[in-house]
Amino acid sequence: MVEGRIGMTLTRHIYEGQLEHPQATGQLTGILNQIALAAKIVSREVNKAGLVEALGFTGDENIQGEEVRKLDQFAQDVFYAAFDHPGHFCIMVSEEEDAAIPIPDEFEKGPYAIAFDPLDGSSNIDANITVGTIFAIWRRRSEGQEGCEEDLLQPARDLTAAGYVVYGTSTMLVASTGHGVHGFTLDPSVGEFLESHHNIRIPQRGKIYSANEGNYPYWSEGVKSYVDWIKQPDEAGDRPYSSRYVGSMVADIHRTLLYGGIFMYPADSKQGKMNTGKLRLLYECAPMGYLVEQAGGAASTGSSPILDVVPQELHQRVPFFAGSMQNVADLRRFVAENDK
Ligand code: FDP
Predict the structure, then answer these.
(1) How far apart are CA 142 and CA 145, in angstroms?
(2) Which residues sit opposite 102 in a β-bridge?
(3) What is the DSSP pairing of strand 320-323 with strand 262-265?
(4) By CB count within 10 A, which of 30, 72, 73, 315 is most buried?
(5) Pocket of ligand 1 contains residue 64 by CB under 6 Å
(6) Which residues pair with 134 in a beta bridge?
């Protein structure tokens, strides 16, 4: 059971981390504080969504061809406003927008680039199911004032920080700056994120698998045979695994981090030929893979570590398998043996 430390607010945690690094400029502290503020605003709106008729579609479509729901747009606006002016970033990319988003001319440019999904799992909103925000932060690579795509097209191995906010039965912010993964639960009575999960460690093996199994007929032989295997009873009683799939990546990864097991969104051949899966690299798989590895787990495309994938385009998709170290190793073995 991971526990937080009494009186440890997110702000204090970040500040103390900063003190341990005398060379720190405080920029990262500022960024995480901005994210926490935006998360509180989105959390408030998510919680009262049904009451104020915030649910439903705006009528527009986003870059993925999905209809944009009102809360998606609201979350996009809130996080954009948190990132555009404090001088932390030189460029951003969001799931909601096709092109990279520049920092407006009138605002100072900063040393970081951010990729974010303002409201992941949004097809669940109408059913009152958990949704979340995901973010990934890299140090910029380009020189000069304006940022460019090169600052965003970096592998997860080079992340400076990443995290997510899960708007569930309570709102939690889970983040890493490369020194373990820590979780902070929003206490609405004081309006603060308080440390509730210090140094989250994912179990080395878990007995839960999480996948949209409706896609089974379209998976590769390797993935099919792995899923067949984890459903077969064995003498030791380690199998079959239990199946849990919310269909909201933040919720499924959050559970996987705490309980162990494997989350997967494999490539499939639904459209005829094998695709690269559904989930997006920059603002879904890279940050979640980084967090899972920071917690002692593994994240893979099935054949190579997610952290090593060098993005070629902003909205690139990749097959994604993440969770307990041993579960991901099993999956990789089945893929290596069956998918030549
Ligand atoms: P959503 O479409 O509701 O935004 O990538 C987005 C995502 O949800 C993930 O959060 C989730 O894990 C996945 O898609 C669910 O996809 P399926 O409906 O195909 O299972």
Answers:
(1) 9
(2) 91
(3) antiparallel
(4) 72
(5) no
(6) 117, 164
Q: Is the distance from the beta carbon of residue 123 to the nearest atom of ligand 1 less than 6 Å?
A: yes
Over the stretch 162-211, which tens digit does the pLDDT of each residue have?
A: 999 999 999 999 999 999 999 999 999 999 999 999 999 999 999 999 99
The residue nearest atom 14 of ligand 1, judged by CA position, is: 121
Q: Whose alpha carbon is nearest atom 5 of ligand 1?
A: 279
Read off the tokens for 310: 């060098």
Contact (Cβ atoms closer than 8 angstroms) between residue 136 and residue 282 = yes
CA dihedral 27, 33, 36, 40 (to 10 degrees): -140
Read out DSSP for 100-142? PEEPPTTSPP-SEEEEEEEEETGGGGGGT--EEEEEEEEE--S
pLDDT in tens, 129-156: 999 999 999 999 999 899 999 999 999 9
Q: How many CB atoms lie within 10 A of CB 312?
A: 8
Ligand 1 pocket, mutate which of 265, 280, 281, 320 (most atoms under 8 A from CB)? 265
22 CA → ligand 1 middle, Å: 41
